[in-house]
Write a structure and sequence with these properties.
Bound molecules: pyridoxal-5'-phosphate
Low-confidence stretches: 1-9
CATH superfamily of the largest domain: Type I PLP-dependent aspartate aminotransferase-like (Major domain)
Helix content: 25-40%
Structural class: alpha/beta
Distance between the termini: 67 Å
Mean pLDDT: 94
Number of domains: 2
Strand order of the largest sheet: 4-10-9-8-7-5-6
Length: 425
Amino acid sequence: METVAACAATGGAHLRGHVTLPPSPDWRSAFPSLGQRVNGHPLVYLDTAATALRPTPVIDALVRFYRGDNANPSAGLHTLARRAHAEMEGARAIVARFIGARDPLEVSFTRGTTEGLNLVATAWGDANVREGDEIVIGMAEHASNMLPWRYLARRTGARVVTFGVADDGLPLLDDLTRKVTARTRVVAFSHVSNVLGMINPAREMCAIARGPGRIVVIDGAQSVPHLADDVGDLGCDFLAFSSHKMLGPMGVGALWGRRELLESMAPYQAGSNMAHDVDLTTEVLSEGGLKYSAGTPNAAGAIGLAAAIVFLEAIGRPAIATHEQAVTRHMLQRLGGLPGVRLLGAPDASRRIPVFAFVAEGRTPTDLVRALDAEGIAIRAGDLASLPLLQRYGVRAAARASCYLYTTTDDVDRFADALTRAMRA
Ligand SMILES: Cc1ncc(COP(=O)(O)O)c(C=O)c1O
């Protein structure tokens, strides 16, 4: 019988064989949706922070699974079931390697960042957080890294305490240091803000936050796609992220957790697969991350996520970083030259991923979305699920342009020119 360890040992080599290298340096040709016109114009897609585009190898991986392996994964049954199992466990190994985890069993497939954070808040929080305890989060958090902790606090009688953000958008480390006390059970923060794109000093923050009887949780929704966080280096206890923000399919993501914590926590949901030998009164729980995956898994999603990782690795983190830095510098220069446009966060390319929230004098963020959409340019606007952070900057809504490896400086120019026209109209 194939075991998780045996599948993991291949490192998902079978999957790598199916993912062809993008025709370097033209990565854009791998993204079919970029070929379309929107409202009569070639699409400029600047909404990656909400969800990224998918390259052909990821779409092919999903189609291949459903056309070929299409079986409920099982290690010891018929050929298709074994193949599906091997592909899925290979995917787990690829995810684990990508984030520097020592053991694939430290990775649990989830529906995304939101589910990963809820899983920790429920499975660890309900058992370990008591009345009078404190949960420390940043004021810059996305709603998905606020509400699971707020609900945990309501269930247990604990209190959520927030640490602040400086004008440049970076966390106030003094404030974090003050807020972490003997009462703190959880410290949760994002490595990169979905609004500001600022890269928080996550390793330093983990060092401040760590302590006995306490967990440190990182929301990696915006960082894993751009920085490929290394859990060994960060020093956190849990890292949650989403596939769809890193070229993979929607509806799947991963939670990494320290093995000893995963073993000690109660299951998040109960059902098939998270346990075996289930009789009328007893059951044997599955190991590590498998314990948190009740029911039939999103096998195609997990395989698609792994295909996205293989694609990212084929291009290489240094090449992506160099490209993103060039796009970021160009965007900062163009936005900086637009009178009436206020960028949120520091205009410092070296501390950012290419995500830019801004407000424009005399134009609501929704006005801007409409004006740009008419020219085939997709941006996002609203409270960006981060209202407390926007309020910190004196606004309740902002527009956001967000880029990835497929964004060009020409895209940035088309965006900035259209924004200039929208401001004049
Ligand atoms: C920083 C951050 N955290 C959490 C989430 C939630 O991710 P998902 O909706 O994929 O669960 C997002 C999504 O925008 C995000 O940007």
